[in-house]
Amino acid sequence: MTNMLSLLVDIKDKYCVVVGGGKIAYRKVRMLLAEGASVTVISPEVCSEIEELSKNGEIKLVRRKGMEEDFAEAFLTVAATNDSQENRRISQQLKSISLVNDASSYEEGNCQLPASFKKGRLHLTVSTNGASPKLAKKIKEEWQHTYDDNYIAYIDFLFEVRTLIKKKSLSPEVSDAILGEILDDAYKESATLRHIYYEKLLNL
Amino acid sequence: MTNMLSLLVDIKDKYCVVVGGGKIAYRKVRMLLAEGASVTVISPEVCSEIEELSKNGEIKLVRRKGMEEDFAEAFLTVAATNDSQENRRISQQLKSISLVNDASSYEEGNCQLPASFKKGRLHLTVSTNGASPKLAKKIKEEWQHTYDDNYIAYIDFLFEVRTLIKKKSLSPEVSDAILGEILDDAYKESATLRHIYYEKLLNL
């Protein structure tokens, strides 16, 4: 719990294995597919949602128990069977050689998949280290209000100003002053002010 | 930017390499050390802060330019020289074989190190995908107020209740009802109510 580095990892087309076929396995599969991973599910039995993904060709499905060679090449393995001992066994086996998440214990394995909130350029995550997945979900819902469409447009403005500054090759001092100035709440609140500021900067 | 999976990764004692010796390199080194990584810095010249870390034996310092063999065994490499072309070269070389973060571009490399907020069991992260590191810092400061000491104690309460439920082996229906019930704001607000609830549960 104490030594966890947060990373955003590009997993597009990376080979990821989910062991287990229940609802929890399905949720993890969805998280991985959303980021473009190449997902293989290994389980003797699977829920209808996973069955459906397999039929649609969105995942590869292997109907048997997981075996050592299944994980050897995986970038990330999720141990999500309904048997916590089995999950633990997989985690222990893999934790020194590759990324492994134990769905039945936040302390086993060597990585966690925190709840993720994405809107425009903003990417927030929340983990309660095993305290309450329900609270994590609630916090995400609160963020939906706090970081509303206007806020996201404000972040786009910050990005555009930053890009423009780089293009204009302004001095570090001037750049830094501008990047500090636009953090003022006035720009967060008013799309008009943002527009005026950007136009002014264009003509600098 | 679109295909990033958020992970919390245990990097205790993992071999991590930071190429570059300036302030940005130093900031990354600190993030890695905070999570217990084994850090090697590679740079012909370094700032006084990195010099100090080396003197104290907290990092290994190699005073020359980075070479291919330096990164071959690394779990994570951070390319943070003051030459964005050099950073890009390192990122391109490593992105298919290991984790690599390009400090001069959020689009190169295959992972980002988002700003991290930790308090008790709560671990939040924020990335603006290159829009504004200053805003990310500001959001972290706001979280410091939103998730105050009482909130963190509330999360501890959620954890204790969840642990107790597991110990008592209650039915999934009863467990789920309890875990939903304690999300009520009343328990977030009152330490007394939390105490009463926990005592009642103990005697269930």
Automatic annotation (TrEMBL), chains A, B:
<keyword id="KW-0560">Oxidoreductase</keyword>
<dbReference type="InterPro" id="IPR028281">
    <property type="entry name" value="Sirohaem_synthase_central"/>
</dbReference>
<dbReference type="InterPro" id="IPR006367">
    <property type="entry name" value="Sirohaem_synthase_N"/>
</dbReference>
<dbReference type="Pfam" id="PF14824">
    <property type="entry name" value="Sirohm_synth_M"/>
</dbReference>
<keyword id="KW-0520">NAD</keyword>
<dbReference type="InterPro" id="IPR028161">
    <property type="entry name" value="Met8-like"/>
</dbReference>
<protein>
    <recommendedName>
        <fullName>precorrin-2 dehydrogenase</fullName>
        <ecNumber>1.3.1.76</ecNumber>
    </recommendedName>
</protein>
<dbReference type="GO" id="GO:0043115">
    <property type="term" value="F:precorrin-2 dehydrogenase activity"/>
</dbReference>
<dbReference type="Pfam" id="PF22440">
    <property type="entry name" value="SirC_C"/>
</dbReference>
<dbReference type="Pfam" id="PF13241">
    <property type="entry name" value="NAD_binding_7"/>
</dbReference>
<keyword id="KW-0627">Porphyrin biosynthesis</keyword>
<comment type="pathway">
    <text>Porphyrin-containing compound metabolism; siroheme biosynthesis; sirohydrochlorin from precorrin-2: step 1/1.</text>
</comment>
<dbReference type="GO" id="GO:0004325">
    <property type="term" value="F:ferrochelatase activity"/>
</dbReference>
<dbReference type="InterPro" id="IPR042518">
    <property type="entry name" value="SirC_C"/>
</dbReference>
<feature type="domain" description="Siroheme synthase central">
    <location>
        <begin position="120"/>
        <end position="142"/>
    </location>
</feature>
<dbReference type="GO" id="GO:0019354">
    <property type="term" value="P:siroheme biosynthetic process"/>
</dbReference>
<dbReference type="InterPro" id="IPR036291">
    <property type="entry name" value="NAD(P)-bd_dom_sf"/>
</dbReference>
